[in-house]
Amino acid sequence: MENEEQKFNNTEIRNQDKEIINTQHDITKRSIRLEEIDRELLGFKGDDNKNIEQIEIQRNHEFESKMNQMGVAEIPISEETKGLIHQNMVSNSIEHAKKENERFDDIQREKKIIEYLNESLPETEDRIGEPMNKNCNVAVVIPCYGERDHILDTLQALAEQKNMKSEEFEVITVINNSKEEPFRRVSETEEIYNKRVDLYRKAVEDNQKTLDLINIINKKLNIEPEEFSEEDLKKILAIKSSGLRVFAIDKATADKALPSEKANVGYARNRGVAEVVARFYEQLNKNGIIVQTDGDTKLDEKYLSTIVRTFNDDHELIAGSSMAVKFIPSEVQGESLNSLEKSKFNKIQLYDSLLRKYIKRKVGMSDDFKEGGNLANVPLYFSGCNMASRAFESAIVGGIPQISGGEDTEFGIRLCEIGKVNILPKEAKVYSADRLSLRASTGAGARKYRILSSVGNEGEIKVKIPPSVDKLEEWKNILEPLNGKVAAHEKISKEFIEKLLKDLQFEADDVVINIIDHLLKNGAREMAFEEIMLMAEKGLSIMSLEMAAQDLSEKFILEYEIGKKIFNDKTEELLVAQKISADLYLESAGKIFDIVFGYGKNKVVNVRDVELLLSEHKEEFDQFIVDTLNSNNKKGVIDFIFEASKKASKEDAIHFTKEVLGVLNEPSKDSPLLKLDVLHYLIP
Predict the structure, then answer these.
(1) Where is average pLDDT lowest: 100-104, 153-157, 548-552?
(2) Which end of the chain has fewer CB atoms surrounding its CB within 10 Å, N or C?
């Protein structure tokens, strides 16, 4: 019987030249259609110079013509009958005008779609050769940068979608990286920059492996079994056998890699979106759905069917996003935090999140949209790992902003300005790897690195304290033009920015000024905010986390109307939950430490010793995993147990556990971190 390896190697190899289509043909067709549209639009332009007398003469002439058509021109009729005939003519004219207006709107929309495609898909671009299936309703766009260790999970989740046939959707990956190593940002430390270079080099290597994987799935490349783990071979076979239609746009190999100014997630998303728009428009003439996610994210098994149902049930809906994202610790070495780091990081992240909310309110950049917009004041965060939009509307707004962070937020704002946008149903869940990332200056991954760099392994946790209210009010002058809209047309001079930064006592050289000037004029609100935050941090004071949390919670409670009863009730509820959780954790940890210290402290010298010991006590260890709510991160739990085993005694290990949990002292209603937790829950 043929084994799995033979099945892979006996697969027929396709001719790759067939996958590249003639882009010049598409561009020529678009140009011809654009000329037709322009000629048709000219027909809608009326003569605005006619006076009332001329209009009256024209109306009388039209009436006489109508009477002649009816054969009653010579028959005397009453004024009443004449009025009825005239009214009928007016009604018909109005109906005709409505249809003409609808046609005008339609061809204006089509013109914007073609202009978007011409800009995003010039003749230099290689296109996917295999045509879109006529039954396709959804295309999934996935930008990939260094995703070799994650992409198979993403594709397998798509291959296992429920209530969706393989011909009803397709997947387009955009494998991308820069031709050059990254340049150092003015606001980053040398340590972070060096780390970013290392990650870039690894990503370039991973991208080639990702391209090979997709070629293997598409039977364009024979598999070498010794290069893959048994688990990866099973995933590849499952994806191949599912019939999943998956394509790769190569922006990673030497002759196709991107120039540094285009090497960002915004460009990658937009390139994939443009490909999908072209396939729906040019091949099917269908306004299909574009789902966007990430190369380290798994979609729930009913995700695509939920999206299709949502858009089919509401024809006015043009886009949606959701924060139904569960972060799962990455199993890839070096991408996740150990238990002690995670504990300290979570506390600082809580503070950081509230600080950012406080600052955004002060500078008029609150995350919730203003009342009167298409969202009717519903908070909606467009998340790149979980958003969907109709193809033609995606093109009409100009596609995805080609920036290195915040592109998803900006895309959402653009869509809000032209139609109905809403929160996706809770069934549209995704599972994203909780990773450290430094490709973009914005985003959770980059923020993790910055926060973690301020955490020492010993002693008190220190954080940057909030800047003064006066300074925040000054920041508003920078960011106000960007509030709630794209600021591409705002004329903000470099001199204004330079003066403002000087007034704020920022040490900003010409490079910083040019960066901010570029960000503001291109409407990248989130990126501008991040850069200014990073510069401001250089001049901020440092204090203990407890003191900073107390200061920030007082600012929130004093400056914003927080319902006192709701605040107190939630505090009490959270206090009880924390106490129960901590007691359960400590009790379960005690049983584990009995095993470790009973075995003999001197015999546990490395993590492997802990793994072997706990394998002999599987029942107790599994219970500890459940009690710590860390079932997806067994490695992190083992790391924590090993750190605890280094202590002098079981009692010291318990003390260490309390420190990690943040319950060294019995929590009280006055605990600053508890207040922040409650504020985080109450404030959008």
Answers:
(1) 100-104
(2) N
